[in-house]
Amino acid sequence: MTVVDPPEQSAGARAAARRERIAGWRVGVLASPAAPVYGALIGVFVLAWVIVTIDGGNFLTVSNIVNMLQRSVALGIVSAGQTVVILLGSLDLSVAQLISLSSLLAASTMDGSMANFLPAVLVVLALGVGVGLVNGLVITKLQVNAFIATLGTALIIQGIIQYRWTGPQGGIPNQFSNDLGYTRFGIIPMSIFLLAAVVVVVWFLLTKTRFGYKVYAVGGSEDVSKLSGVRTHRTIITAHVVCSLTAVITGLFLAARLRAGTPTVGTDGGYDLESIAAVVLGGTALMGGRGGVIGTIGGVFLLAVLDNTFNQLEFNSFLRDVVRGLIIIAAVAVYARRQEKKA
Amino acid sequence: MAEKKLLLQMQGIKKSFVGVEVLHGVDLDLYAGEVHAIVGENGAGKSTLMKTLAGVHPPTEGKILIEGKEVQFAHPAQAQAAGVGIVYQEFNLLPDRNVAENVFVGREPLKRGLVDRRKMERDTAALLEEVGETGFTPRTPVRWLSVAQQQVVEIIKARSLNARILVLDEPTAALAEHEVELLFRLVRRLQELGVGILYISHRLREVFQLSDRITVIKDGGVVKTLKTSECDQRTLVSLMVGRDLDAYFPERGRPEDLGDVRLETRNLNTALLRDVSIKVRAGEIVGLAGLQGSGRTELARAIFGADPIDSGEVLIDGKPVKFRHPRQAVKAGIGFITEDRKAEGLALAQSIADNMMLAVRTVMPARKRRAAGVMSNKELAEVTELKARGPEQEVRFLSGGNQQKVVLSKWLKTKPQILIFDEPTRGIDVGAKAGIHDLIRKLARDGVAVLMISSELPELIGMADRILVMHEGKLAGELPAGASEPEIMELATGAHEEVAA
């Protein structure tokens, strides 16, 4: 698109408009917080492809790529929610336990029959709203630091799980499991549509609604937002509800995949810290106010590619964690440098 | 005055925090199209008063009437809705969001339930046009704006709420001299639009230039409300501090107090400086003038080892030195009182004692301090006339003037031979200012070489033994003590070059 400046514009306005166009590109594409993660994703992807192929494995095959995508679903959904609270300057450490509890509740409520499908979903969603409300209220009204507040919630949920369940909970109907966990449209698994839907909804919330604008504002500065008339407490509570909802959806999905509710599915997957890592890899500032869900998905895919590569190369699992740790630290260092340059 | 509409009445406003009353029944009114200045020392209660109006701290007692109707604000949003806009001293903008997003934060226009970004940008552009700002657009990230431009954003943000009552809290504290003129134009434009403006400032000159009436506040109560045309600066100062300030500035140094050249730079070049050569003698206060961005602060940072030097050298007592880190500069006896007290000068959440010890702890082991004759915290508090509850008080609870005294104490501990002050009295009230000025002069008399950066020309003229003026990274010229403001501004704006060319 070419822009012709009308002749009556002043020199100052023209100069400003020109700066703006250049800036638009810098802001829009290169300076977008998500840019480095996609750069890194492409780099790691190509590197993985070369290494795995040399090693004699299959990397760039349809089935392997679909496999990687499928493995991103659970982490992707919960990370989308985690993005919202981190953008706000908060965080949620209770998602892993919440995932476990929602998978257990889904299984026990369905009790082997698809007739109970709707009640089960409602129960689980209500659980999500409830936990989100508790997190949000404790953080805003009791002024407890988010780290401690959600850690406390995590422990409480952990206690409830251990009191009530000692092992997997049956009761997931086969039909539910097949529909959500194993159906494919052509080669694309149903679950990828679920991930896409959650990501689109969160993206929409963040970029198109007042709620989203408020999340960025509160994350930028809670004081500024408050003095500007934003009801910061409501925003923080709502964001935590959104985050917990994504966690329970993840729980439902994992129950379908595993055909059972499991007391440790969330903590085994490390979804609490992994989701935070994905968000940070995706360029969202841990202090809040800058970033977005698009970057987070890049972060999730990056972790998935790494996992897949490590699997194919039969990497020692300890070494895996070392490499992943190094990558996360490097990512944050890169973002810090970019931020310094811009300021 | 009679035909003007009464916009705001505040009657008998009292405010207590945890049982301590800080406002004791303040009365204040404001007419449409009026600039009503509010002056008073820091801690007099001006900001608290404004916060009761803004709904940040609802008053404990008293009434607020807007256009004759009583209102009660429990949240800033309610005050905004009633047409009260406040531009705070510390800016309230989100650096990572653009101008339009900042202007409409929390009340983004909606279309079918979704944020109407286009309308938001259009409306912002219209507001920018209203005030005649062409330097940036609604989409510019706030991070990229200068302080003065950020202030314009703050003001149009208030305007976008249809604010009929606009409170400007120390609006010029962070502005350079030429930017102040732009602000004044903006204020007059708003006046024409019928906005009533409450203007809080320490700079009395501005108050006289702008205001119709002045209210003096002291210790949480109104001392007097006067018509600007019926009073002068001296009356006002004595009302504010409750005493006469005859010697506003301390006496200048005598020629025999001057010692050898202590600090010297030779053809200093950095990313922002071009061939800067200066000399500061022991016992001398050298003023450094210039517009914001002219390289004043950059020169100080380069000397202090905070920014890399491309070429040229820095000499202390005639010996060339190379500082790669401020720590080396501190060890060599330089102290740097930075412009941004809160961000660069103090650990706000720590105690006065810890802050005072901050620099000396890093450069001198405890066992050497006694031998070196380092002053104790108590002595420093006496020397600087620090007013605080005790050494354990957190510095964030101190007034601006007392905070600055803590910063100064921190450096005095290191027994500096060279002190660089960057805007030493920014945001500090008249009484405390005089105290800081006295202290700076006393240090010079004791043989310290002082380089003092300031945007307040009267301060530079009153304090400095010599004034160096910077313009676009270069030294534009040198003026003797007692130079006039026009002389300095001519050099600072580069006007002399145009004449020559």
Q: Could you characterize the architecture of this molecule?
A:
The complex is a heterodimer of chains A (343) and B (501). With 343 residues, chain A is mainly α. Chain A has one domain: ABC transporter involved in vitamin B12 uptake, BtuC (Orthogonal Bundle), CATH 1.10.3470. Chain A has helices at residues 11-30, 35-54, 62-87, 95-110, 117-140, 146-164, 174-182, 190-208, 210-220, 222-227, 232-258, 265-268, 271-281, 293-313, 317-342, and strands at 184-185, 188-189. In chain A, helix 4 (95-110) crosses helix 11 (232-258), helix 7 packs across helix 11 and helix 8 packs across helix 9. The radius of gyration of chain A is 22 Å and the shape is globular. By secondary structure, chain B is of the alpha/beta class. Chain B folds into three domains: 6-241, 3-Layer(aba) Sandwich (Rossmann fold), CATH 3.40.50; 257-333 and 416-427 and 445-501, 3-Layer(aba) Sandwich (Rossmann fold); 343-415, no CATH class. Chain B is built from 19 helices and 22 strands. Chain B has a six-stranded mixed beta sheet with strand order 6-9-10-3-11-12, sandwiched between helices. In chain B, strands 18-19-20-15-21-22 form a six-stranded mixed beta sheet, with helices on both faces. In chain B, helix 4 (117-130) packs across helix 5. The mean pLDDT of chain B is 85. Chain A binds chain B through residues 10, 12-13, 16-17, 19-20, 23-24, 27, 208-210, 212-214, 216-217, 220-221, 223-231, 289-290, 342-343, and chain B through 54, 56, 75-77, 80, 86, 88, 92-97, 101, 105-108, 110, 113-115, 134-137, 139-141, 143-144, 157.
